[in-house]
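Bit of a strange request maybe. I'm writing a small parser for structure token strings and I need a real example to test against, not something I typed by hand. Could someone generate the tokens for this chain?
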Amino acid sequence: MRIVLLGAPGSGKGTQATILTKTLNVPHISTGVLLRQAVQDQTELGQQAEAIMNRGELVPDDLMLALIKERLSQDDAKPGFILDGYPRNLSQAEALDGVLAELNAPVEHALLIHVDVDHIVDRLAKRAELENRSDDTPEVIRKRMQVYEEKTAPVTGYYQQQNKLTQVDGLGDIEEINARISAALGH
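Reply from user aminoacidic:
Good idea to test on real output. This should exercise your parser:
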């Protein structure tokens, strides 16, 4: 099963992806982890990304897409994958579809874990407190949510037009949310 997992920061994507990985026996591919691993392993793409990040710049879409293509070409991803953290905007979604067409592995499901802004602010504020992250103030979190809404709304629409989008309520305990996701996937 090939899944794109969408949701705001703090919506529970990472937690649910970890559970789904075990249930579906497909890899959880987090773009942040993928990028850090490529840099640590000093792959050719990792070295390019590291040089860009060392200049304080964002890794460009084409380099990120190349890293994703490289990862999705590995044997463990052939039966499927859970892609978390990508695509973040419409051009990335379109480019991803192009790469997946080359690999003959189109997205089958786009799952949006929906949690309203007030709950996200509460979740991230609690997480910031537990992890001593002073940069995650309610004001900063709300700004991140605004940026997320502006950039991601077109992505959800893109997958909705393809009849691949399913929205799942992200409130409740981990098991309840996972049951909703499993039902949405027909498991």
